[in-house]
Inverse folding.
């Protein structure tokens, strides 16, 4: 089915629009934009050069995707803002394109970015990520799969947030958040395993128990983080999820939350 474009929308002839795309009134689609099949583009949406939308995405009214980075080092280089399949982008969301550092800002598939969220330049979001209203990511942030960032959370540049973790509302993230946990308080701290989320996603009971024991050693014992990691590394038959924790901590440059 051919794309349906409202007469008031402005679509550049060099934009690539796939089949069965609906573009609402007063939308502005610039050159070098690619919109995949079955996408819904709301009214007053602005898609700027370098935007790449996968299939079946929904972009709600007044969202602005692909604007130049809010980075004084940006020199006008050609970069992209890439969105995966079936991702929902709600009202007034802003996603800036990348800089020469990474070349792209990337949001994965099956994500939900609620109203007024902001994803800055060179961020990389995995799949199934949820950002609640007015959460904001600074530049160069990595968010792994199945992360939930609650409303009005601010994340400092270059931070990493591990898979299946959840950040409580209104808090600020200034260090790396390891996977599978709930983080809250000021300053942000470990508040336990994300048990409810892990159960909903089908993690077996023995895996959840192993994760509890690992984080008890890291956060609730007399050992510092370095010693706790060393002890966990010495255990035989480590499950993959525990190894994910160790890999995440070992790669941390900002350090993990307390």
């Amino acid at each position: 089915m051919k794309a349906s474009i409202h007469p008031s929308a402005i679509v550049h002839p060099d934009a690539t629009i796939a089949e069965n795309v609906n573009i609402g009134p007063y939308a502005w689609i610039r050159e070098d934009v690619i919109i995949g099949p079955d996408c819904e583009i709301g009214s007053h949406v602005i898609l700027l050069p370098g935007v790449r939308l996968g299939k079946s995405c929904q972009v709600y009214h007044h969202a602005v995707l692909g604007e130049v980075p809010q980075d004084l080092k940006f020199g006008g280089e050609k970069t992209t803002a890439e969105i995966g399949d079936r991702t929902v982008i709600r009202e007034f969301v802003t996603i800036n394109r990348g800089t020469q550092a990474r070349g792209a800002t990337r949001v994965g598939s099956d994500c939900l970015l609620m109203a007024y969220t902001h994803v800055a330049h060179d961020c990389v979001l995995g799949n199934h990520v949820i950002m609640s209203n007015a959460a904001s990511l600074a530049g160069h942030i990595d968010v792994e799969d199945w992360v939930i960032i609650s409303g009005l959370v601010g994340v400092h540049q270059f931070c990493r947030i591990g898979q299946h973790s959840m950040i409580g509302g209104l808090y600020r993230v200034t260090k790396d958040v390891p996977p599978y946990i709930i983080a809250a308080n000021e300053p942000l701290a470990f508040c336990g395993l994300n048990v409810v989320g892990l159960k909903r996603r089908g993690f077996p009971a023995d895996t959840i128990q192993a994760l509890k024991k690992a984080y008890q050693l890291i956060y609730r014992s007399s050992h510092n983080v370095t010693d706790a990691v060393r002890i966990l590394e010495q255990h035989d038959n480590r499950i993959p999820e525990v190894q994910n924790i160790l890999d995440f901590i070992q790669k941390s440059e900002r350090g993990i939350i307390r």
